[in-house]
Amino acid sequence: MKLFLHIVVVLFFASDDFYSHAAEAGPAAPTAREWNTRGIELSRKGEAQSAVDAFSQAIQMAPKLADAYVNRAIVYIGLKNWKKAEADCTMAIKLDADNTRSYHQRAIIRSQMGLHEAAFADASRAARMDPTNPSVIFTRYLTCSRSGRHELAHFAGETYIGLQSWSDIWSPYMAFLNNISLRRAGYEEESRAILNEAVKWLDAVKWPMPILIYLQGGLDAEQLLALAIDKDRQTLAHYYIGANEWLNGNAAAARIHFEWVSNNGNKDFLQHMLVEDHLKELDSAGADNQ
User: Fold this and answer.
1) Distance in Å from the first CA to the final CA of the chain
2) For residue 286, what pLDDT is reported?
3) Domain hosting residue 243, numbered range
């Protein structure tokens, strides 16, 4: 009995000593995965630099964690730090060549950097890997358009509408962009058909129906601009008026509207990005005609 009691006492004190040391040590340090999750949460809160630091900590602890590189790249995109964002996506691809997000985000980054052929290649790869992802298809449209592949851009636009349906907020604008792409590719009949299809689905009294009516010839430029009651709508109205004038051979009128978008438009809009390309094309055409 004494021996038994001695063993119990020894075990009791050993256990007490163990728990006292555990309490002194505090909670376990976050793992790489937990740092990655923390970075995502900070990013969603808009705490960009703290998110970068969290993802960097995850990468330091687990240098082969591809997701952490992609997540940090997305934060860098928000900060417009294109070179760091591209480097992170490239590293993620080296670590995991099957990571669709890496190609998709790098396509966005390279498009912003003006690397249109490389962006097109990345977007095409992402679309092959994830052909039903509307965000990927939207980016493929962008890269097709910016690389001058208008005959492919409209296929991406049609795919997007097919995936999202006409109830999606962006589908009408994709139809308008498709109209422009089809006209640029020389498919006049098809360009009218996409607008005729859109008419069936859009609310007749709500924006963006006035853009559609303008593109079909039912409103003139002044009437469309009068209906554009805020900066966002003005950005879109000026863009589509400029594109329409350009395709009708009125380069000088097109330039006025494109420059308005460039100087005054919403810089977060895809149309703002595209208008910079159009102005370069107009400049190039003007130089060729001199």
Assistant:
1) 110
2) 72
3) 203-290
